[in-house]
Every structure is written in structure tokens, then in C-alpha cells.
Amino acid sequence: MQEIRVTNYPEVLVDRPTHYCPGCQHGIAHRLVAEALTDLGVVDKTIAVSSIGCSVFLYNYLNLDTVEAPHGRAPAVATGVKRARPDAVVFTYQGDGDLASIGMAEIMHCANRGERVTVIFVNNTVYGMTGGQMAPTTLVGQKTTTCPGGRCLEREGAPIRMSEIIASLGGTAYCERVAVNTVKNVLGAKKAIRKAFQYQLDGKGFSFVEVLSTCPTNWRMTPVAANERVASEMIPYFPLGTFKDIAATEGA
Ligand SMILES: Cc1ncc(C[n+]2csc(CCOP(=O)(O)OP(=O)(O)O)c2C)c(N)n1
Ligand code: SF4
Fold it and tell me: Hey, is 96 helix, strand or coil?
């Protein structure tokens, strides 16, 4: 079989085989982060904080100084890194199990304090790495290994919409939810990620981008069907858009 090599990628993105499953969109999110940092010319002063989940190996794909945080604690680790190195561009990269479950307290307080860090939140509605258990973001009726009959509203409550919560906190400067299921949405996601880093560089406050993402393996779907599910099931419940932009409210 002929090997297909992609060559027009930013230097900070490492040329190596991926461990992500076919159709997983973590790779697209990695590339968009790499492009945004490259466009802004801040690769050399960026420190990533990777979390626990399928993206635990973020440092294998992005040639950046990286700190590995315990499960859910990336916003607390990023707080320490940024306060120790205020000139660095600091970001966390977290899944929905990591950020919205075990790490719920850390993300809330980090945003509320207005830490000058950026959070890339990859929401695929399951715990991917550990075998597809129910996450706080699992949709009502969605079958997972811990709710094989589907998430039940009465029993497990409604899926948590993190962007809406983060936008309500005083320290948040910018909060947007994006998807990478179409070319148009990928371009929108790139713009949002770049803007989030720009706000950090401008010292505006905490910036947060939620990326709706697929997990074909644990959704038990083909990559194509999983991509279609983003539009048919995820976006109706997790609407795309800007939930807070301090520049808009300041008239800047
Ligand atoms: C303290 C602790 N509890 C539980 C785990 C097991 N664990 C590893 S990854 C993970 C869930 C990750 O899911 P998510 O954050 O949604 O990321 P994804 O794998 O879907 O990208 C869990 C529960 C752990 N590593 N450490
Ligand atoms: S298990 Fe899901 S989130 Fe993890 S690499 Fe595979 S598709 Fe991606």
C-alpha cells in the first residue's frame, strides 16, 4: 500500500505514527493548537499541561515543554506554572472525564480566579481511555459501558454543559464551543483556539475552548457515523458559539 505523508504541517507537530483510533478527532485538535501557536509565534515560550485520558501522550505529538498533571488537576498545575513563569504561554488540554468529573473543582476555581491560562477542553461524551464509561457529558439515552441501557435523566441527571458554566464565572475572558466535524467548523475551531491564546497574551484573563470530538471506538461506530453523530446528536445539545467574550462587552 502506498504511504500517504502529510507535509504541510507546523514544525511543532511531531512527524510520528499516531496512537489515536481511526476517526478520533484528538489529532485534529492537536494540529489546530500547533497551528495557532505557530501563527502567533509563541512556540518557544509555550508550556503545555497534559491531563489523564487518551491525550495523555500530548507531549509525543507537540514538541513543547510539557508538564503531566494528575487526573483533573491540570488547571491547578497550569496556575502554578503560569504564576512561576508569567511570560510563558500556558495551556491545558483535557478530556471531559478529566475536566468535568474528577477535575470539576479545579476548572471552576481556575476560571473564577481569572488565571491567565488557556484551556482546550475535548468533549467526546465518554471516558475514552478507560473503555467508554459514562461521563458527565454523556447524552441522555447514550449507551456506555456503565449505563448499558442508556443514560437516564432521572437517575444520572442531565449532561453538563461546561461552556455555559465557565462563561458565567467572573474570571473568564473568553469562552467558545466549536466542533471539527466539517471543514467550516475546523476553520472556526482554529480561529477560536488562536483567539483564546491571543487573549492570554493580552493578559485579558482565563480563556476556554470546548472542542466537540468523536470517540468511534467507544461509541461503537464507524468513523463516518461518529462524525455524523456530532452534527445529529451533539451539536443540538451542545450548541456551538461564543458564550463569553470580554472584548465584546468592553467594546474593545
Ligand atoms: C485518580 C485517577 N482516577 C482514575 C483514573 C483512570 N482514568 C484514566 S483516563 C480516565 C478518563 C479519561 O476520559 P476523558 O477525560 O474523557 O478523556 P478521553 O480519554 O476521552 O480523551 C480515567 C477515569 C486515573 N488515571 N487516575
Ligand atoms: S478511545 Fe476514543 S478518544 Fe481514545 S483514541 Fe480511541 S477514539 Fe480517540
Answer: helix
